Amino acid sequence: MCGIGGVIQTADLADARSFLEKINQRQRLRGPDADGIWTRSEDHWAVGLAHTRLSVIDRAGGQQPFSSTDGRHWLVFNGEIFNFRELRDELGGHGVRCRTNSDTEVLLEWLIRFGPDGLARLSGMFAFAWWDSLERRLLLARDRCGIKPLFWAPLPGEGLAFASQLDSLAGHPRLRRQLSRTSLARYFFAGYISAPHTIYEDCFKLLPGHYAQWQAGKWSGAQPYAQLPSEDFSGGAEAMTEELEARLRRAIRRSLVADVPLGVFLSGGIDSSLVAALAQREVGDRLKTFAIGFEEPSFDESSWTQVVARHLGTQHQLEVLSESEMLAQLPAALGSLDEPIADPSLIPTYLLSQMTRRQVTVALSGDGGDELWGGYPTYLAHQASGLIKMLPNRWLESLGDWSRNRRADESYQSWRWQVERFLGYGEKEDVERHLTWMAFTHPQDLEKLVGQLPFENLVSRERLQNALSRSGLNRYLLLDYLTYLPGSVLCKVDRASMAHSLEVRPPLLDSEVIELAWRCPANLKVRGRTNKIPLRELGRKYLPEEIVNRKKKGFAIPLAKWLQGPLRVRLEEALQVLADWPEAGLSSSSLQSLWQEQQQGLRDHSRPLWALLVLADWRMRQ
After folding, report:
1. pLDDT at 338 over 60
2. pLDDT by residue (tens digit) across 594-616?
3. Is the pLDDT of residue 369 over 90?
4. Which long-range contacts (CB under 8 A, 24 or more apart) does 432-439 make?
5. Are strands 45-53 and 2-9 parallel, antiparallel or unpaired?
6. How much is the pTM?
7. What is the predicted pLDDT for the residue at 63?
8. What is the mean pLDDT of the segment spanning 111-140?
9. Contacts for 222-228 with beta carbons within 8 Å, 24 or more apart?
10. Residue of 488, 495, 609 lying closest to 559 (CA atoms)
11. Closest C-alpha to 109, from 77, 87, 140
12. What is the pLDDT of residue 125?
């Protein structure tokens, strides 16, 4: 994995190079093995590219910025193109002969020949920038799921800057770092800020599955390069399972291509266990699996990982973490964030990445299974939404208030938590209902923090428009695929793993698997109370029955306990930092109200309080 950056500005090359050097310094952990900078004067523009490299494929070749033999084309590339061998063979048919064995060179030659029209053929996880010196044109592109990050910002004088990290980009001296109050509200609502927005007014994320071009001071805006197919799979459940197996085995085979040690994250759930099972068939008894456990039984899944590891015969590495160990790593884990993300599972993900990196450089994960195949409890809850609308409003209000007036419950999505979310918002229209069920902060708490805002201000309209093209279950899946998956899940994994120079590859998000998932009718994914049916049916072939039938359990930490105990002083300091930050517009009385109700056991505000702690930590590092 790597870090990339670049700039086009009306200034001398020394200024541009200074900025690029700062990018490489800040993004060193994304690529500790090598670095490079290229700059050139193009008319009145100073153009430059920067790269830090984590060597995974062709460690001796593929150094970046990478140029064509004639020096016209330049590329900086973060990620992996998993089908680069097939693309290289196809290029060979057109007379192209590659100098190296790297996917970097294949990508550049592919772009030179096919341009944006060739992007849909790329299978992998990537963010890259391609500069054409003759055309004076820059092309930026990001993989279809948003596995790899790419931030950009317009510069005064019609220039442009971009980077793999927001804090690197925001270091440009000509950029304002003005807080976006709308993005702040979105952060509290969802726990993350969905693309194309960032925490800053003038910085943006390139949308997943999109490309954009700059030429002669003109920015084209983001354009999609691959459309999701419709639900046109005509076979039955058995045929779907067979096709999923064929595609997932190909995806895992491609994901195992590396010139460095490789392993698998193992949680004991169906997704990571299935990835481990299919990877083990390719690797044999050399496969290493990695898991962490917790001392608190309600959060510990280590026994399930051991069941899978014994069944598969992997070299399993397990560390049981104490509360004191996790707390000791908390500052470093939060320090890995270039933008606030409130998902508490960042902490165990950070520690799992740290443990895994001691032995391997690449790890496969099970990310993406829930969003593509219907793994979250909310998908089942939608089935009963019609019944909820039949209940009198006064009943719903009473039940909602009863569930809200409760002490903290540390169990994952407890039944009282489900009552609070389900009954409180089951009467809303489907899109608002789903996003509110998935929200990080309860709307009543959100109102205390940012006031009353229209629902439309809390979500990414660009993402909503795409999701509305579907109906039923696949509409909700697409909402999460376009927002929660890239904005929270993949972002968290990228930041936590890159802090340890570990590359994480999710085979369930291979382009072939994604295509099949969207072709799959909803009734083949979820039926009754059974979800992820194709994955579970495939799992029966490779995994113990108790793993196949397991219910989802979150990768969580004891938030309420920590906030009342070892994080109490840190939280109180955080609330003061935010109260003294006028740009954020958070009133001290509202912040203290949440904290006092939490201390008195009147209501559970642990999630918004955690979001406030993360925000304050980010603020103090700016």
Report:
1. yes
2. 999 888 887 888 999 999 999 99
3. yes
4. 433/382, 433/385, 434/378, 434/382, 434/475, 434/476, 434/479, 435/190, 435/459, 435/479, 435/483, 437/378, 437/381, 438/190, 438/376, 438/378, 438/480, 438/484, 439/189, 439/190, 439/191
5. antiparallel
6. 0.94
7. 84
8. 96
9. 222/196, 223/116, 225/116, 225/119, 225/120, 225/141, 226/119, 226/120, 226/144, 226/511, 228/478, 228/514, 228/515, 228/518
10. 609
11. 87
12. 96
Task: Give the largest CA-CA distance in the chain.
Answer: 74
Q: Both tokens of residue 274?
A: 């299935």
Q: What is the pLDDT of residue 395?
A: 63
Please report the domains of the chain, with CATH numbers, ordered by start residue.
Answer: 2-224 (3.60.20.10), 237-374+491-548 (3.40.50.620), 558-622 (no CATH)
Angle CA 174–200–562, to nearest 5: 130
Token output for 112: 């030179």
- Whole-angstrom Cα distance, residue 30 to residue 127? 13
Q: How far apart, in whole angstroms, are the C-alpha atoms of residue 281 and residue 253?
A: 10
- Rounded to whole angstroms, the Cα distance separating 297 from 614 reads 26
Q: 95-105 burial, b for 16+ CB within 10 Å, e for fewer?
A: eeebeebbbbb
Q: ∠ CA(84), CA(87), CA(91), 5° rounding?
A: 135
> Pseudo-torsion of CA 457, 462, 463, 464, nearest 10°?
60
d(CA 540, CA 187): 39
Whole-number Å distance between alpha carbons of 21 and 25: 6
- Write down the residue that tokens 């208030």 correspond to: 401
Q: Over the stretch 190-204, which tens digit does the pLDDT of each residue have?
A: 999 999 999 999 999
Question: Which SS3 state, helix, strand or coil, does residue 239 take?
Answer: helix
Q: Are strands 34-42 and 288-294 parallel, antiparallel or unpaired?
A: unpaired
CA separation for the pair 188, 609 (Å, rounded): 10
Residues 6+ apart with CB under 8 A from 455: 432, 435
Stated length of the chain: 622
- How far does Cα 575 stand from its chain's mean position? 27
Contacts of 596 (CB under 8 A, 6+ apart): none
Q: Show the tokens assigned to 491.
A: 């972002």
- DSSP secondary structure code for residue 147 in this structure: -
Where does residue 193 rank: exposed (0-12), middle (13-18), buried (19+ CB within 10 A)? Answer: buried
Consecutive H or E run containing 92:
helix 84-93
Provide DSSP, 448-477. HHH----GGGGS-HHHHHHHTTS-THHHHH
pLDDT at 72: 96
Q: What is the pLDDT of residues 377-394, one digit of tens each?
A: 888 777 766 666 666 666
Put the strands of the sheet holding 503-505 in their side by side order: 315-321, 288-294, 262-265, 362-364, 503-505
CA distance between the termini of the chain: 25
Residue 541, both tokens: 């072939």
Cβ neighbours of residue 486 closer than 8 Å, sequence gap 6 or more: 145, 146, 147, 194, 195, 208
